[in-house]
Amino acid sequence: MTTTTAVIGTIAVLLSLVCWALFLRGVGTMVRSIAQGQKVEPSRFAYPGKRFATMMKEFVAHTRMVKFRTVGWAHWLVMFGFLIGFVFWFEAYGQIFDPEFHWPVIGAWNIYIFADEVLGLATVIGIVVLMVIRQLNHPRVPARLSRFSGSRFGAAYFVEAVVLIEGLGMIFVKTFKISSGIENPPVWTSFFTHYFAQLFEGSSVYWVTAAAVVKLMSGMVWLAVVGLNIDWGVAWHRFAAFFNIYFKRESDGGVALGAAKPMMSQGKVLDMETADPDVDAFGAGKIEDFSWKGWLDFTTCTECGRCQSQCPAWNTGKPLSPKLMIMSLRDHGQAKAPYLFAGGRKDMGGDEVGIVDADGNVDEARLNKVPAAARAEAERKLVGESEGTTGAVIDAEALWSCTTCGACVEQCPVDIEHVDHFIDMRRYQVLIESDFPSELAGMFKNLENKGNPWGQNASQRTAWIDEMDIHIPVYGQDVDSFEGYEYLFWVGCAGAYEDRAKKTTKAVAELLDIAAVDFMVLGQGETCTGDSARRAGNEFLFQMLAQQNIDTFDEVFATAPEQRKKIVVTCAHCFNAIGNEYPQVGGKYEVVHHTQLLNRLVREKRLVPVAAPAGEQVTYHDPCYLGRHNKVYDAPRELMESSGSTLTEMPRHGERSMCCGAGGARMWMEEQIGKRINVDRVDEALSTLNSRPTDADGNKQVRKIATGCPFCRVMLTDGVTAQTSGTEDEGQVEVVDVSQLILEGVKRGRPEVKRGGNFLGPIQTERAPEPEPEPVAAAAKPAAPAATAAPAEAKPAVGLAPKSGGLKKPGGLKKPGGAPKPGGATAPAEPAAETTQAAPAKGLAMGGGLKKPGGLKKPGGAPKPGAAKPAAAASAAPATDDAATESAATESATSGAAAPVETTATEGKAKGFGMAGGLKKPGAKKPGAAKPAAAAPAEPTAPAATESAATEPADEAPADATAADTGTAAPAAAATTSGTEGKAKGFGMAAGLKKPGAKKPGAPKAAATAAEPSAPAETAPAPEPAAPEEPAAPAAGETAAQTDEPAEAPAPAAGSSDSRTITETGASKAKGFGLAAGKKRPGK
Fold first, then answer.
1. Low complexity compositional bias: what residue ranges (predicted)?
2. Stretch 186-209: mean pLDDT
3. Is the link from the previous residue into 322 a cis peptide, with omega within 30 of 0?
4. CA-to-CA distance for 553 and 586, rounded, in angstroms?
5. Which of 8, 470, 797, 935 has most Cβ atoms within 10 angstroms of its Cβ?
6. Do residues 428 and 511 share a domain?
7. Crossing angle of helices 943-950/882-895, nearest 10°?
8. Quick one: 414 and 455 in the same domain?
């Protein structure tokens, strides 16, 4: 050590002490800031071993970073160069005094010298690659395509420069040691510096000191600058990331997806029955309402923009960027921190309640000590209009643009929980501020009153069953116990009401029947799971809907052991809600998605699909709540492969799949800014499908977009319609569910599917032979009852005509324990469409969407106990001309002839959320078991009418069906309801809101004793029945008038592009829990 080196070393040490002091002060300020957040749930501290293992795995293996491969390995080099390089960096303290200094013992080891070489080179190589990547993705042109748009480039450039200088300092110190003759290590330990030192051969030992000073002081400058800027996440993540990973929500290492975090206050889950908004935080309305883990999230953000690059809202021109929202919350929190340190706090009215004197008045002296900037920051709203310096921290449009798809959480390298924070802010806006998009008001109201977001009656939840030619047992109607069944098939709101989703429901039910899987459905006992309500921030409504469903499940599974409480669902949102979120409120069941169950059945050879002879090109859209939220990626793809489809993946698939735009309650909101998300996704799908228009033989392939979620199907279908309308691709691309592909394959292998499986009972072996088809001329004779059907049970066919050997489930309630009902008459070989008459319109048969009123009307609510209804023979009103006949025949093929309905039930025990004041649970009351009732004998019908009823129907109602058609084909039988008036059920809210889906029937209707016979062919008149009474067939308006509530405006067609539209009522400004309306049709 010389005088020169001693002076230089002393100055460097003194400066380093100042730098360390500034850095440590910054650490203290950061810790105090994070501590301003609320307590976290105790589970964050559970399983320390698992948490530490997760932290080390993500740190050492860089499991999060490698999702971007080039960045992954480059960052790995920089990270180890920085962390392990600390050992070599501190060595510079000795080298500035004595150029020959090295650590005792280990400093002379060859492996230590080799590590110095490797880390120095790795740091330089890694940081240079990262600097190049940043410049290649710089948001110069165009800004929207850069993940670095909005990031702080000054801070990033500073950090990159320091890291580069530190790496070079390590190389040059070693180089000058070799060139000056201080060290002469083996070449293998200095494979680069050995040759690099030859450029500086014979250099002075003072160059070692100079290089050591640069290496040391570059780090010291970094400490000082970073300590003065605690909002530089690009620097602080080096330390904060370890704690953020350790305290992540999932102790098993999973990301914070699947279940939304419960609404919490001071580390305790809030029960909406006992929560007090004056004491408890209902969501996040102020920065201090977030937990300290939330503050740690904000502090850890590296501004890398991975979340932004994957965000569907940002990529379609919306104002939302997950990165910018986290940065805004971080900057706001740090700016407001001095006010919070002083004890400042405001109530919901904005009055100061923290810095007050003994009398509760504002202590102006203490308040004035708080910096003016901090006081001004405390006045800002968290969510609202963000324009101007005093505007809100988070723009409301940005907050409500989130689809909760989870792409941001999936990609974040430091485990920030974006979605949980967004939902917390929405909760405050809905529950406290009553400030949310007006479209949500109708959705909230429909969930409260009807138990489904479409606002349809619960009686229509089983309409799809009437269109099936297999018997599907309904709990409370056909069966009273889960004994003997393996799965409860949860149909869901979309699967019951939305025409496109009903195709999935039917396909899954048919596949389960073919595979002989024992299953049952709840029918009217279902209520919305509450997914959309929770994602929209209405935690109150979610908890009530969830509790009602849990009560229903517990009743169904009352005698089943834990391992047999199995539920299969077709909706990805229901799958996530029941499987992941219901355990938070006490409902634990084994929930499986239909693609998982069907894939298992294919593996077990219980379903054997056969590939189509012609090419079929399919691309698959991963639903967010099936893929990212629940990690189900393989089952749907294996199913498509087994069906023989040629799967072509879109560029964004798997965990990087692009959202369809329906999540986060966006299904029910208008998209007014930028490009529609579903259109952007469809453009990608069409581009993928068009890349291979023909197969290997040059044949044009059928093009399909497959998915596994009804919401995705609606959005993608709307997008396909918008993008192909008026082009050569119009009508050439179909959006289907995976189950439909597998059903097509199974049917190709089983052209004649036997009926009479698990639920229908054994196939009847002693059946009378089918009559030979008679010539058309012979059809003039009156038709005798079918040989295989007892006269007392003969009914016209409903929905699909059963195949030979099958049994038919009539519309209406079956008698439990009774013999299976036979199907309708078998259609003769020669069609007689020109002689058929109009069949009665059944259910609600709007083309392509929600079904129109008319035909056989089900009661508006749960059946009441009472005598069985008189049955009436089904027949059709005569057509007046050929056009009417053709139109009526079309409807007949769609809905089938109306069957007599037997409805008897006892009123079940009221289920509720247990709210104060005797609040009632929302949703439909599950009907009790049907009581046996004798069916009235059916009137004989003409052969032509029989042929028409048995004709194979179309899959769904034609899109151009009109009310005039319904009027022409009047119902042939009217159902009557006998029973006592049920007690009104409500949501437990003001004005006695009704229980969703269950309306009281009005006064009992007059029973129809007979119906007009079908009009016979001119050459074959049928005998007229003796003096029939005119059937009571009320119009849709009259039927609605019989309920005890005012009729709502008819909902739009669920199968159309307007299927997400909700009836608009009330004021445009949404208030409270969304009781006021003001809805728009989304997607346009």
1. 775-807, 816-844, 859-900, 925-952, 959-981, 990-1021, 1029-1054, 1066-1077
2. 89
3. no
4. 11
5. 797
6. no
7. 50
8. no
CA–chain centroid gap for 697, Å, is: 40
pLDDT value at 561 more than 70: yes
The residues, ordered by sequence, that sit 6+ positions from 964 with a Cβ below 8 Å of its Cβ are none
160 shares a domain with 174: yes
- Work out the burial of residue 676: count CB atoms within 10 Å of its CB; fewer than 13 is exposed, 13-18 middle, 19 or more buried: buried
pLDDT in tens, 305-349: 999 999 999 999 999 999 999 999 999 999 999 999 999 998 887
Query: Residue 583: pLDDT band by 50, 70, 90 thresholds?
Result: very high
Helices H, strands E: what count in the chain? 34, 12
Please tell me what DSSP assigns to residue 251: T
> Are residues 584 and 507 part of one domain?
yes
Q: Of 748, 768, 796, which residue constitutes the final position of a domain?
A: 748
Domain assignment present for 941: no
Token pair of 603, please?
A: 């593996």
CA distance 614 to 610: 12
Instruction: Determine the Cα angle at 942 with ends 937 and 948, to 5°.
Output: 100
Tell me which residue range forms the domain holding 347. Answer: 255-433
User: Looking at the domain assignment, is residue 969 inside a domain?
Assistant: no
920: amino acid identity, one letter: K
Task: Kindly provide the b/e burial profile for residues 440-458, where b requires at least 16 CB atoms within 10 angstroms of the residue's own CB.
Answer: bbbbbbbbbbbbbbbbbbb
Length of the chain: 1084
**Domain assignment present for 381:** yes
Q: How far apart are CA 908 and CA 993, in angstroms?
A: 19
- C-alpha angle 109/112/117, rounded to 5°? 130
For the record, the structure tokens of 64 come out as 């999060």
| pLDDT, tens digit (0-9, with 9 covering 90-100), for 708-744 | 999 999 999 999 999 999 888 888 899 999 999 999 9
In whole angstroms, what is the distance from residue 1054 CA to residue 852 CA?
A: 11
Cβ neighbourhood burial of 713 (10 Å; 0-12, 13-18, 19+): buried
Q: Say what the pLDDT of residue 878 is.
A: 37
Q: 471 in a domain, yes or no? A: yes
Residue with structure tokens 């990608």? 684
Q: What's the token pair of residue 437? A: 């998009």
Residue 445, classed as helix, strand or coil, is helix
Let me know: does 408 contact 315? Beta carbons within 8 Å: no
Closest to 41 in 3D by CA, of 267, 310, 363: 267
* Closest among 529, 966, 507, 560 to 740, alpha carbons compared: 507
pLDDT value at residue 388: 67
Residue partners of 33: CB distance under 8 A and separation at least 6: 230, 295, 299, 333, 334, 337, 340
Distance CA 493, CA 627 (A): 21
Highest mean pLDDT among 375-389, 618-632, 679-693: 618-632
Domain boundary among 229, 244, 274: 229
The three-state secondary structure class of 544 is helix
Q: Report the alpha-carbon distance of residue 146 to residue 579 in Å, rounded.
A: 37
Distance, CA of 1035 to CA of 1039 (rounded, Å)? 6
For residues 253 and 394, the answer to whether their CB atoms sit within 8 Å is no
Pull the structure tokens for residue 992.
């006695």
Two tokens, residue 477:
């109607």
Cite the DSSP H helix spans in 137-232. Answer: 153-179, 193-196, 206-228
Distance (Å, whole) CA 525 – CA 866: 20
Question: Would you say the C-alpha torsion 470, 475, 478, 480 has a positive or negative sign?
Answer: positive
Judgement on whether residues 272 and 388 belong to the same structural domain of the protein: yes
**Same domain, yes or no: 355 and 497:** no
- Cα-trace Rg, the chain: 35
- In this structure, are residues 1060 and 667 in contact, taking their beta carbons and an 8 Å threshold? yes
Query: Going by DSSP bridges, is the β-strand pair 646-647/487-490 parallel, antiparallel, or unpaired?
Result: unpaired
The two beta strands, 268-269 and 264-265, are: antiparallel
Q: Enter the tokens of residue 250.
A: 């999932």
**Residue 840: pLDDT band with limits 50, 70, 90:** very low
Supply 179's token pair: 């060139």
Report the distance separating Cα 340 and Cα 542, nearest Å: 33
